Amino acid sequence: MPKLPLLEARTAILGEVDAIIIPVFQDLREKAIPPKVTSPFFEGNSRNELEIVEKFFKSDIFSAQVGSVQGLRWATKNKNVLNHVIFAGLGPISELSEEKIRKVGAQVWAKLVSEKSRSVVIHVDPFFDRSSLKSDLSHLRKIRAFTEGLVLSAYEFKKYKSVGSQDSKKGSDFSKRISFLTSEKSWVASLEWHLNQVSAMGEAVYLARDWSNEPSNYGTPTYFSNEARKLSRQYGLSCRILTEKEMVRERMSLVLGVGQGSVQPSQFVRLEYLPKKVKNPKTIVLVGKGVTFDSGGISIKPSLRMEDMKHDMAGAATVLGATILASCWQVPNRIITLIPFVENMPDGGAIQPGNVLTARSGKTVEVINTDAEGRLILADALDYAQDLKPHVIIDVATLTGAVSVALGKQCCAILGNDDELISALRDAGSLNGERIWPLPLYDEYGDDLKSDCADLKNSSNDALGGTIRGAIFLKQFIREKTRWAHLDIAAMAYDLGNLPYYPKKGASGAYVRTLAQFIADF
Ligand code: BES
Ligand code: MG
Ligand code: ZN
Q1: Does the active-site annotation cover 301?
Q2: Reported pTM
Q3: What is the pLDDT of residue 37?
Q4: Distance 222 CA to ligand 1 centre (A)
Q5: How far apart are CA 467 and CA 405, in angstroms?
Q6: Which atom of ligand 1 is least distant from the CA of 460?
Q7: Which domains does the chain have, with CATH numbers?
Q8: What is the average pLDDT value for the chain, to the nearest integer?
Q9: Integer angstrom CA distances of residue 297 from 211, 215, 253, 268, 309
Q10: pLDDT at 166 over 70
């Protein structure tokens, strides 16, 4: 895993610093009230130099519009003084939101990378409300959002860049020490606490991204189940892994059916987090689609962008990340995380279109399209999940290409049978700048999945309402009183270059934070 930036709270600058970052509200900029950059932050700088900073601040060069970042450097003879100031615009305080601040964090990170700044100081006092500037967000939440933007931007996947290669040296891998400087001594402890929370968040999101980015020749079902076991030890979760033999005993023929065209044995991972000192905690089951590579099987995919199908276990990565993050936050609810890992391949043993499989629930399924494999493995996992009698079940999957057509790359789709659950998930999403949009699940959509020879089929002949059909298939395996929601993250799982603080290419790690938040608030 790439190293997280080291975050620390300070009341004085220690050691050498490459740059100091000063957040600026547009209101202050317009009133030409310069930031406090005097002692102790600028000890050693001459009066002249402080004047340079003030002059620059008052000039038209820096607008303080949200996301605007301006650096000021000047030469000094004395090496021990700070001669690099970066102003970060936050826009007008009345229009501030946590998401905007995260984006500013991302802009600042880009600046630090381009300036090759290794050790930087963020002056957090300007985040504090002054009497003339009231904002609804508490200063700690502002600082936290800013830090999230930085940390989420700092990820890179370089595992397979050879050490000497050009790219292995590029980017942000160098700088990692970020000090948060405040003159308010009484804030240090709570600042530190928040920084730790953000570090945990970074770790969980990085992990999810690493999982999803892993090439599928390495990232096999066996690799991920081994990793899950290691991580469960590291984070104090319990872990059980069902082998194919045990899955036969569990009657999970849909999981086994999808995996049978691959030389890689399928694995069914079950993780559990149990809160300490909570009597009768509520149980949340998370289910993640873990197709380590989706070739489509016998209904093979076209070759264009087939390489992206290594990300077809992004749902698994998301629920793993969320479980780890929630456990780091010591949430008061019990979490059981279920991941069927399979590789969808077309070898001589593969399932064929027209085959009929019997699901764990007892329903028979005609496999019209072996590329509609995610819903098959999830159906068995959801059935298993309901035996655990949870309060709610949430599944996360890169289920349909159709969700990109419906919603593009700004939000994922949510479908389910419980409006309260859906709106709670959407709320957790908006707190984290991760958007979730509902699609309908009218029972009549199920008519499209009637089979001539089995209880239902996994796909229809036309491509209408693909995301809804995927979900309506899953719904056939949801029992009457189960509260359930399904997130189709196919469009949001990778290549989110359109959004700030997600990597331009590769895994996004989106919805890890949202799910952890949902669990924490449930
Ligand atoms: N893994 C794909 C969905 C997908 C497509 C994810 C593009 C990310 C990017 C899924 O298994 C699949 O192939 N779905 C089919 C369903 C169809 C055959 C009913 C699809 O969306 O075309
Ligand atoms: Mg498929
Ligand atoms: Zn798939």
Answers
A1: yes
A2: 0.96
A3: 57
A4: 23
A5: 10
A6: 19
A7: 6-196 (3.40.220.10), 214-521 (3.40.630.10)
A8: 93
A9: 22, 18, 16, 20, 12
A10: no
